[in-house]
C-alpha cells in the first residue's frame, strides 16, 4: 500500500513538473509590441503603445482613446477587475477607454497556468505589459500600488488621477 502511494505521488509530481515546464514558455510573440512615453504618466506627456490583450490580439492606442487605466500591482488589478466584471461587456469601448495591466513580474509558468485562463474569461479586453521594456515607459515605483487613470487628448495626457479603491476608481472614470 505504501509503495503504491509513493509511486502515485512521484507520478503526480512528474506530471506537474512536465506541465509547468511546457507552459513556462512565453505565450506572447515579441514582435509588433511597443510602449513609449515622453515623460511617464504625467500631464503633458505623449504616450503611445501597441500591446496584446488576453486573447493575444494586438491593440493600439488611438487618437480617439479618452482614458487609460493602468495597474502595476496584483491588488490594484483585482480592484479594477472586480469593478469591470459588474459592468456591461462594452463598458470600456463605449467610453473610449482602455485597461492596461502589468504582468511582467509574474513567473511565466504562473501566468500561463493560472492568470491567462482567468483573464480569458473576462468580457472586457485587458492589455498586457508582459515584459519590463513594455512597462518601463509608464512605471513610477512610488505609484505602483495605485490605480492610475490618465485622460488623453490625441495621445497627450491632460489629467492624471490616482485611485486606491473601487470608489475612487469609479469617480475617476466618470
Please explain how this structure is put together.
The chain has a single domain (2-172), classed as Glutaredoxin (3-Layer(aba) Sandwich). The chain contains 6 helices and 8 strands, in the order αββββααβαβαββα. It has helices at 2-23, 74-84, 91-94, 108-120, 132-135, 166-172; strands at residues 34-37, 47-52, 58-60, 67-71, 97-102, 127-129, 147-153, 156-163. The protein has a 5-stranded mixed beta sheet. The protein has a 3-stranded antiparallel beta sheet with strand order 1-2-3. Strand 5, helix 4 (108-120) and strand 6 form a beta-alpha-beta unit. Helix 1 (2-23) crosses helix 4 (108-120). The protein is elongated.
Short summary of the structure?
This protein is α/β, with parallel strands linked by helices. It is built from 6 helices and 8 strands.
Mean pLDDT over all positions: 88
**CATH hierarchy, class:** Alpha Beta
User: CATH superfamily membership, which one?
Assistant: Glutaredoxin
Following the backbone from N to C, one meets helices and strands in this order, namely: HEEEEHHEHEHEEH
- Continuous helix count: 6
Rg calculated over all Cα atoms: 19 Å
The CATH architecture name reads 3-Layer(aba) Sandwich
Structural class designation: alpha/beta
Give me the CATH fold name: Glutaredoxin
Amino acid at each position: 500500500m505504501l509503495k503504491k502511494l509513493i509511486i502515485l505521488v512521484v507520478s503526480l509530481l512528474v506530471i506537474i513538473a512536465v506541465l509547468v515546464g511546457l507552459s513556462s514558455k512565453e505565450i506572447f510573440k515579441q514582435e509588433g509590441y511597443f510602449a513609449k512615453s515622453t515623460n511617464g504618466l504625467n500631464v503633458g506627456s505623449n504616450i503611445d503603445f501597441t500591446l496584446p490583450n488576453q486573447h493575444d490580439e494586438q491593440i493600439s492606442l488611438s487618437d480617439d482613446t479618452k482614458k487609460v487605466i493602468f495597474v502595476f500591482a496584483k491588488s490594484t488589478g483585482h480592484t479594477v477587475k472586480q469593478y469591470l466584471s459588474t459592468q456591461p461587456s462594452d463598458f470600456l469601448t463605449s467610453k473610449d477607454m482602455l485597461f492596461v495591466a502589468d504582468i511582467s513580474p509574474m513567473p511565466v509558468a504562473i501566468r500561463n497556468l493560472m492568470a491567462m485562463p482567468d483573464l480569458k474569461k473576462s468580457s472586457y479586453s485587458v492589455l498586457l505589459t508582459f515584459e519590463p521594456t513594455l512597462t518601463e515607459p509608464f512605471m513610477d515605483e512610488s505609484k505602483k500600488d495605485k490605480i492610475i487613470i490618465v485622460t488623453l487628448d490625441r495621445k497627450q495626457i491632460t489629467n492624471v488621477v490616482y485611485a486606491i479603491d473601487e470608489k475612487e476608481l469609479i469617480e475617476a472614470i466618470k
